[in-house]
Amino acid sequence: MGDLAEFQRGLDLPVGDRHDGPFPVVAATAPVGTHHSFKVKGPGVVIGRSGSIGGGQFIESDFWPLNTTLWVKDFKGNDPRFTFYFVTNIDFTGLNAGSSVPTLNRNHIHQIAVRYPADVDEQRAIAGVLGALDDKIEQNRRTAQALERLARAIFRAWFVDFEPVKAKAAGATAFPGMPQPVFDALPTRFVDSAIGPVPDGWEVKAIGDVVTAKGGGTPSTTNSDYWDGGEHCWATPKDMSRLSHPVLLDTERRITDAGVNSISSGILPVGTVLMSSRAPVGYLAIAGVPTAINQGFIAMVCDGPLPPTYVLNWAFTSMDAIKAHASGTTFPEISKKNFRPLPVVQPTDDVIAAYEQTADPLFELITMCVKENEQLAVMHDYLLPKLLSGQVRVPVGAQHAAPLQPLQPLQPLQPPPVSQPTEPLQPQPPGQAVRKIG
Q1: Which one of 3.40.50.1000, 3.90.220.20, 1.10.630.10, 1.10.20.10 gives the CATH number of domain 147-352?
Q2: pTM (2 decimals)?
Q3: Sequence-distant (≥ 6) Cβ neighbours of residue 54 within 8 angstroms
Q4: What is the predicted pLDDT for the residue at 98?
Q5: Neighbours of 31 (CB within 10 A)
Q6: What's the mean pLDDT in 339-365?
């Protein structure tokens, strides 16, 4: 490994000594802030040294690696991004030199025997293929994030700040993004309600009166009939914590028909809005697949006048109020009893339908991005060890191939004006000779 890269221990930078700036401060698993100066020029590669060992981060810019990391001081003429992919595919757990805290010794890393292509052009070709997949995944992530923000901004403008109604009352003849017939039918005055002034003709109801709130359960883990060969998704807050976007398409564990029958809420339909009710309160997603849930949820089955995208964004914008109704000594938890009375604005049917027609295509695109990223991640994980081991060879020059094409977008929607708010490589014992492919 020492012929591929020379590692150096990171440097101390106490939180109190950090000053916001353009340079990332990099810890063992991720950046943890910024600083006004840097210690290492980018691009760089960082792995975990203490606490969490191994892994890998590719840092494009100049940066400050903390002392919980090892960073590549010298790439020995090798391609930096290839080096990043290479180290992420190594399981460093066998080199743990710590007793209570996992720790890597850079001298041990330098001595392990590894195989890698000596031709830098081939390294760049491999990095180009894997980088194209990563770049597409990141592009999809940013697209989905932008769509989420747009749907939430429209919700806030229409149903929290009531901007279309205020605009009409002020003499406007239209509102961006709202269909003209819907705008023409809006009221021009507000009436008092339990949550303050709301548009005339709109109602304030308890969330429990417009959705069916359900809990879940855990089938006995000692009864194999509930688990072995399970085919039904069974969600936990842990599944929700892994989501980068608010759509649930799979779960870590599955249960059988018998397991489903042991849970009172059974299988919840696609479109159910899921909210973790404890540890912590507030993970949110729309079920993209039928799923059962454990006891750490309040599930909102949208069988009333409000569609899932409306209920999801109501929950996002109402999260402070939701958490305020949680209780518990060990950890906060909100019960269905305390959740059901929470207020939600119910607009007229035409306004609800207009929002649904606007937000649903955005959510469909978010779901497309998430599904495509899952497929790309599987492809990435399949190719990574094969490319690095030489089992699959990439023609030199492949790094210049055309980039993956983005999803075809729907017709752009004009948002309303919104106020600013495979198995890893196993290291060989130290002391063995380094071998290169090619």
Answers
A1: 3.90.220.20
A2: 0.83
A3: 47, 48, 87, 90, 91, 92, 93, 104
A4: 85
A5: 16
A6: 98
